UniProtKB/TrEMBL annotation:
UniProt key word Repeat: yes
Record field: transmembrane: none
UniProt keyword annotations, A-Z: Repeat
Organism in which the protein naturally occurs: Trifolium medium
Family: Belongs to the PPR family. P subfamily.
Name by which UniProt lists this protein: Pentatricopeptide repeat-containing protein
An example molecular function term from Gene Ontology annotations: mRNA binding
PPR repeats: 15-49, 84-118, 119-153
Length: 176
């Protein structure tokens, strides 16, 4: 890797592709520190990572139970990377898994303000987060909002919602 980075000053596009490859290689080898280092180097040298590279790194941090670190990276770089639905989905899932529903809804709002439309996966993730945090009624409201946006719930969405109601002892509502 060191040899690759020593020759990176030749062409801007090659340099950008090289950094992308290095960051992704470290992500795939489960090395978040190194991936973050090269991502920051890439940005410092004037190159913006593509959203896929950024998303891969965020996903690695979330899967490594480094949610706080993922949040810091997201917050620091959100204006330097083109965010997409997947960027927000990864972070919303991380917030829900960390039990921070407030942040997950802030991300939903931020997502909508940037002109991105939440999809069924985003809503199902939020519904699951609400259910796991004991707020099945908010989950039901999200489900209704999702349907109002003409998003079609899938089997996973129904399963999450039904399980949420059952865990709260609300079997009747779970069948509705």
């Amino acid at each position: 890797m060191e040899e690759l980075t020593q020759n990176h000053y030749t062409y801007s596009s090659i340099r950008s592709l090289l950094y992308e490859a290095i960051v992704n290689a470290y992500v795939h080898s489960q090395s978040p520190d190194e991936a973050l280092y090269f991502l920051h180097e890439m940005i410092h040298k004037g190159n913006s990572p593509i959203s896929n590279t950024f998303n891969n790194l965020l996903n690695l941090l979330i899967r490594s139970n480094s949610f706080c670190r993922a949040w810091l990276v997201f917050d620091e770089l959100k204006n330097k990377v083109v965010l997409d639905v997947y960027s927000f989905g990864i972070m919303i899932k991380g917030c829900c898994e960390a039990g921070d529903l407030l942040k997950s809804f802030q991300l939903l709002s931020m997502m909508e303000k940037t002109g991105l439309s939440p999809n069924v996966v985003i809503y199902t993730t939020l519904i699951d987060g609400c259910c796991k945090n004991g707020d099945v009624h908010l989950a039901k409201k999200l489900f209704c909002k999702m349907k109002g946006l003409d998003l079609v719930a899938n089997q996973h969405t129904y399963s999450v919602l039904i399980n949420g109601f059952f865990k709260q002892g609300l079997q009747k509502e779970g069948f509705q």
